[in-house]
Amino acid sequence: MERLTPRVRVVWLALALVRAAIFGGIVVGAAIGVTRTDLWAGAPDILVPAAVAIAVVLAVLRVVVAWLRYGVWRFELRDDDLYIERGVFTRVRTVVPYVRVQHVDSRRSPLERTTGLATVVVYTAGSRSSDVAIPGLTPARAESLQESLRGLAIESEGEDAV
């Protein structure tokens, strides 16, 4: 089983902090708006500090989950399929038969480019969850994985998916 590059934690932590800041800004801003206007005449004095506390707790939880996510994420190119294992609270095991692979892309978001990472996206035949992504790869590993998956998909074209 292959693990992701440890630098992916930086990306996941940054995204967790940005999302927490946005959510916290909305919650705290709404609490301030309610207490400073006539929307809720009897608003308790604790409303804004409670909103700040909720935002901080959720931010810490997001950061912890982002950190733990790395320890769970694994993938493997097996004989007939791509196997992916992930999930902090709910473990998800995904098996993608090579015969179902339609095409394989790689992408690099601005944050991934800054940290020297890339993501491989595997598009499969089917309607539900028709693509899977493998984040946290070096660009060289992403390119080699993309080529390997493409070759394995071509080799399995004549086989039956079931």
TrEMBL record:
Coiled-coil segments on the chain, per record = none
A Pfam family cross-referenced in the UniProt record is: bPH_2
Top-level taxon: Archaea
Limits of the YdbS-like PH domain: 73-148
| Transmembrane residue ranges | 12-34, 46-68
Q: Which UniProt keywords apply?
A: Membrane, Transmembrane, Transmembrane helix
The UniProt entry, under InterPro entries, shows: YdbS-like_PH
PANTHER family according to UniProt: TRANSMEMBRANE PROTEIN-RELATED (PTHR34473:SF3), UPF0699 TRANSMEMBRANE PROTEIN YDBS (PTHR34473)
**Name the UniProt record assigns to this protein:** PH domain-containing protein
Q: What species is given as this protein's source? A: Natrinema thermotolerans
